[in-house]
Amino acid sequence: MSEKQFDVVVIGGGPGGYVAAIRAAQLGFNVACIDEWKNAKGGPALGGTCTNIGCIPSKALLQSSEHYEHAGHSFADHGIKVEGLGLDVAKMLSRKDTVVKQNNDGIVYLFKKNKVAFFHGRGSFVKASDAGYEIKVEGAAEESITAKQVIVATGSNARPLPGAPFDEENILSNDGALRIGAVPKKLALIGSGVIGLEMGSVWRRLGAEVTVLEALPTFLGAVDEQIAKEALKAFTKQNLKIELGVKVGEVKSGKKGVSIAYTDAKGGAQSLEVDKLIVSIGRVPNTIGLNAEAVGLKLDERGAIEVDEECRTSLPGVWAIGDVVRGPMLAHKAEEEGVAVAERMAGQHGHVNFNTIPWVIYTSPEIAWVGQTEQQLKASGRAYKAGTFPFLANGRARALGDTTGMVKFLADAATDEILGVHMVGPMVSELISEAVVAMEFKASAEDIARICHAHPSLSEATKEAALAVDKRTLNF
Hints:
The structure is a single chain. By secondary structure, the chain is of the alpha/beta class. Helix 1 runs parallel beside helix 8 and helix 3 runs antiparallel to helix 4. A hairpin with a 2-residue loop joins strand 11 and strand 12. The strands form five sheets. The protein has a five-stranded mixed beta barrel. The chain is globular and about 65 Å long. It folds into three domains: 224 residues, FAD/NAD(P)-binding domain (3-Layer(bba) Sandwich), CATH 3.50.50; 111 residues, 3-Layer(bba) Sandwich (FAD/NAD(P)-binding domain); 114 residues, FAD/NAD-linked reductase, C-terminal dimerisation domain (Enolase-like, domain 1, 2-Layer Sandwich), CATH 3.30.390.30.
């Protein structure tokens, strides 16, 4: 066993961890990062859940499945004839794996470029001493490293359904959902959140009959109600069957697939037989094996690490970021916290504004939002004005052949400050950034309405929705 001394050790190489390590190195710290993810050959696979079994591979499959659906259903409208359309799922998964590896290798390169030392294995606390915190790395060879400051960025794990643990063959987490080797005839999802809707969309496009079972009585309760209703209408039209207000009972997995007993919203007993079941009922902080108790690191009742508003833990010199702490479990939130913590360690003033963190669901239509929803504003009693503009009236959307959805602005009734922007439609994952920038600079709806937007572009819908706040749209 060897021992090495660093200024900063980051435990976890996901979006929060690797970005924190790079920023700390840029600021002059001697930095190490520990991560245990392995690729198929047993080598390092930096990037955490996001790169390996989350954001990146799911977007690769969403893109592939969208191409397939366009070829089968939309190309004819453009005068493009496709005969003998086929599907090679193995090739599709192979492409997805290649995209993942490119991202893995990219982070390895970034570590070398920024002189971040990398240790492949599981990191855990051993003890605190005058030299800092001793961290054990359990990998091919066990090592011990010490640092004055530690950033914990160990992420989260999929939450299993009680009584029906993941086997990743029939009952799948996001991991297994990305590795289904053939299109299932019937697929069920429990949970209609981001993962459920995205994975449901992938396999529906490829030919599966998909049923989504959601316990809540409302669809996408965190989304602006008007936007959620528009999305539900679009998904239903696509034959994505979504049942709300259900209570899932016994789930049995066998050789022929999975049987699900549940009670529907009206109290009726129902059963569903499917080939595969994807469970997406949330995620839990990943602190098992961290050995937090060895140094007295405080966890809450969920197993998350307790931190203050600046991501400081109960221990001096120990910080925690991303999914393992409070706040939204989003890769870009983790990245922002990673940068902020590195800068705070250097005596700077790191900045993370939870009110302007964008959310995106990469379905078709895409859903994106930032700030408060209309129902939140009503509940708080804040006076507001609303403006909407449909993609149906947008020239670029017509040319694309995708006019589903709208852009919605919410602004303060007195000051016109933008309080929230909500979108459902084509490529809104890209459009939402304008709203984030505007809100960071405390812009008004009038500011966006006065800015020249390229024509024809989808972004004109953003300008028109801002104009609609003052009831003066030009194209609707």
